[in-house]
């Protein structure tokens, strides 16, 4: 009974986040808003709101306790393990070719760290956990885009080139979210004191970013449909929402990761697939239907699985 009580509390705590996603979804589906509305709000959130929020938090980076950098090894090491497992499942169980197996496996590890991960972590674990997420965000796009690019390039061409590495690195350095993080760290460690009116403005934007991002995510999801090959979609969701968090947790415990870092990366691993994964599928023209379906289904299911995973960790003292 105590476990179900904890689960209920965690579900109620995260429910407002998924209601905001549903609100954005319904607004587009029933309101018949033009796609330009979604595109404009998404652009504002990604290019202005999120960078300002991360700048505001990271400018106070030193106020938080020291972060154990083993979390990078745990998070991405677990991702690589599950990626290899996903490729094997895709090839052995579904008889997918090399490019399809790569995208299948990528769907099982590409976490929506920004639009879902940050709001959930912010609500459940507080601002002190956001710098940990920021460290993950810095490396997430670079490492995963590079992994997919190199894997598909090797499958299609039988060789590797430096172009994929260079292109991925350039894209990351231009990413406004990465710029916001590094700008905040720079302000923090140089000891610059920002004028009060700037601090107040960034705080106001920071407070509105999480709910806005969830509404925008829901609006974006309204563009996708549940399509065929649902057996592939279901397996991708199972890998992403269950297997990846389990592998991440076991790896973190084996390496003695501190409690807060462990909670953050396990919760990040448990949230839905990133929209960037669908963009990747479109770029490579591989498994676009199953990945789009996985976006919708994993977002809906994570409203249950993420609170469940946190409840298990808290109730059974696994952290």
Care to describe what's here?
It is a single chain. The chain is an all-alpha fold and 319 residues long. It is 81% helix and 0% strand. The chain contains 13 helices and no strands. The longest helix is centred in the N-terminal third of the chain and has 30 residues, at 2-31. It starts with a helix and ends with a helix.
Overview in brief:
The chain is mostly helical and 319 residues long.
Question: What labels would you give this structure?
Answer:
single chain, 319 residues, mainly alpha
Poorly predicted ranges (pLDDT <50, ≥5 residues)?
Answer: none
The proportion of residues forming helix, as a percent range, comes to over 70%
Order of helices and strands: HHHHHHHHHHHHH
Query: In percent terms, what proportion of residues is strand?
Result: under 5%
Largest sheet: none
As a whole number of angstroms, the C-alpha radius of gyration is: 19 Å
**Helix count?**
13
- Structural class, please? mainly alpha
Q: Rough shape?
A: globular
Distance between the termini: 20 Å
Mean pLDDT over the full residue set: 84
Number of strands: 0
């Amino acid at each position: 009974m105590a476990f179900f009580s904890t689960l209920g509390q965690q579900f109620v705590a995260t429910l407002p986040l998924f209601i905001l996603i549903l609100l954005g979804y319904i607004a587009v589906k029933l309101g018949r808003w033009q796609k330009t509305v979604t595109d404009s709000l998404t652009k504002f959130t990604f290019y202005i709101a999120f960078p300002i929020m991360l700048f505001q938090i990271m400018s106070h980076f030193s106020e938080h306790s020291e972060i154990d950098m083993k979390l990078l090894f745990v998070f991405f090491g677990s991702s690589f393990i599950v990626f290899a497992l996903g490729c094997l499942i895709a090839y052995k169980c579904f008889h997918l070719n090399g490019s399809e197996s790569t995208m299948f496996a990528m769907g099982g590890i590409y976490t929506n760290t920004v639009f879902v991960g940050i709001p959930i972590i912010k609500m459940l674990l507080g601002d002190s956990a956001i710098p940990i997420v920021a460290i993950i965000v810095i490396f997430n796009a670079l490492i995963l885009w590079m992994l997919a690019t190199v894997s598909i390039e090797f499958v299609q061409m039988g060789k590797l080139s430096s172009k994929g590495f260079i292109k991925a690195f350039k894209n990351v350095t231009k990413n406004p979210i990465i710029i916001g993080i590094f700008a905040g760290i720079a302000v923090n460690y140089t000891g610059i004191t920002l004028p009060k009116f700037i601090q107040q403005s960034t705080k106001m934007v920071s407070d509105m970013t999480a709910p806005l991002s969830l509404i925008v995510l829901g609006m974006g999801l309204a563009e996708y449909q549940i399509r065929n090959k649902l057996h592939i979609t279901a397996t991708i969701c199972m890998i992403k929402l269950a297997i990846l968090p389990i592998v991440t947790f076991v790896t973190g415990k084996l390496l003695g990761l501190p409690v807060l870092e462990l909670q953050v990366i396990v919760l990040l691993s448990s949230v839905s697939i990133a929209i960037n994964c669908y963009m990747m599928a479109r770029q490579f023209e591989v498994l676009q239907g199953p990945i789009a379906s996985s976006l919708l289904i994993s977002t809906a299911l994570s409203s249950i699985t993420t609170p469940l995973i946190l409840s298990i960790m808290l109730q059974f003292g696994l952290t």
